[in-house]
């Protein structure tokens, strides 16, 4: 009985949060700003949006191609087009329940390439570890280049006494976490330890694989394509076309986090882009319009490419 409830909750809660964020953004904008957003949409240069979609497809391909290296390491020589279609379907499924696409990828790989689910899923987990490390590298670079703006924002909105209080709370929580992690025998803690051990094992397998440098190259290339996909869209709107590349990275980071926060970033992605750009003097209308243009175009691509991938999987594997 708990399982159906969990599935419904994992689908509806992020969706409701996204709808709530859309309502919040809509009510926080003045009628004039809403009218400006319509004008930004009308006057946007969609050639840059099209270029962004082309880059996104290259990113899909790079993820599919990288996957073959970890699968080859396990002794499976899969077809790249099947990898690509599985990635396309997985992205589509992620629009429903966040991160459920990873399971879908492993299931499709088992069905069409006869790779055991546990092994296929293990390669995907390893990918997520590498992706997380690269994403944290982006975060570090962005915070180094934008330290003055970020620190000014923090100290302007949070008093020093509150920062000290937050620091003390974080320190105490860290001590409690470490104590529970190393001393507790709770079932949930043991489960987390097993998953963490699996992540470490996945990372270790990458370090010893034959084509590890190619794997790492494609890993960085994937994230480079994601960043470029975001970057070229700023030229679609005149008011955002001259922002610096370091600001683009900040928007990219917060947008990436927002995508995992709700179903495909619905509501969360546009408002995160609006908020970040507002810190750098870009008006709410332009920031909101850019966020919605990027989110809408990428979501449509995900849906269309996901459906096509699902159909082509069956077409190219009729005998399976």
UniProtKB/TrEMBL annotation:
TM segment ranges: 7-26, 46-62, 129-147, 163-182, 215-237, 243-261, 289-313
| Keyword Nuclease tagged | no
Cite the Pfam families for this sequence.
Answer: LPG_synthase_TM
Localization annotation: Cell membrane
Give the keywords, sorted.
Answer: Cell membrane, Membrane, Transmembrane, Transmembrane helix
Instruction: Work out whether the entry's keyword set contains Protease.
Output: no
Topologically, how does it sit relative to the membrane? Multi-pass membrane protein
Q: What is this protein called?
A: YbhN family protein
């Amino acid at each position: 009985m708990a399982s159906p409830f969990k599935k419904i909750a994992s689908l509806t809660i992020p969706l409701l949060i996204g709808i709530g964020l859309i309502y919040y953004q809509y009510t926080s904008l003045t009628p004039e700003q809403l009218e400006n957003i319509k004008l930004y949409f009308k006057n946007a240069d969609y050639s840059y949006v099209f270029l962004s979609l082309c880059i996104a497809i290259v990113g899909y391909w790079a993820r599919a191609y990288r996957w073959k290296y970890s699968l080859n390491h396990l002794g499976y020589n899969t077809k790249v087009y099947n990898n690509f279609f599985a990635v396309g379907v997985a992205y589509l499924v992620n629009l429903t329940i966040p991160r459920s696409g990873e399971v879908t990828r492993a299931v499709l790989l088992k069905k069409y390439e006869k790779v055991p689910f546990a092994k296929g899923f293990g390669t995907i987990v390893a990918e997520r570890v590498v992706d997380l490390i690269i994403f944290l590298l982006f975060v570090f670079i962005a915070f180094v280049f934008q330290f003055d703006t970020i620190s000014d924002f923090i100290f302007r909105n949070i008093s020093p006494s509150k920062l000290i209080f937050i620091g003390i709370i974080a320190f105490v929580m860290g001590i409690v976490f470490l104590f529970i992690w190393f001393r507790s025998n709770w079932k949930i803690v043991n489960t987390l330890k097993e998953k963490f051990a699996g992540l470490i094992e996945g990372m270790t397998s990458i370090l010893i694989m034959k084509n590890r440098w190619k794997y790492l190259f494609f890993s960085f290339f994937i994230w480079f394509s994601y960043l470029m996909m975001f970057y070229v869209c700023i030229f679609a709107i005149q008011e955002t076309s001259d922002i610096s590349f370091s600001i683009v990275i900040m928007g990219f980071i917060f947008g990436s986090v927002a995508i995992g926060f709700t179903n495909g970033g619905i509501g969360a992605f546009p408002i995160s882009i609006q908020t970040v750009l507002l810190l750098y003097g870009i008006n709410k209308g332009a920031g909101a319009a850019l966020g919605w243009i990027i989110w809408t175009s990428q979501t449509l691509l995900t849906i269309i490419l996901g459906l096509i991938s699902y159909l082509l999987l069956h077409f190219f594997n009729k005998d399976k």
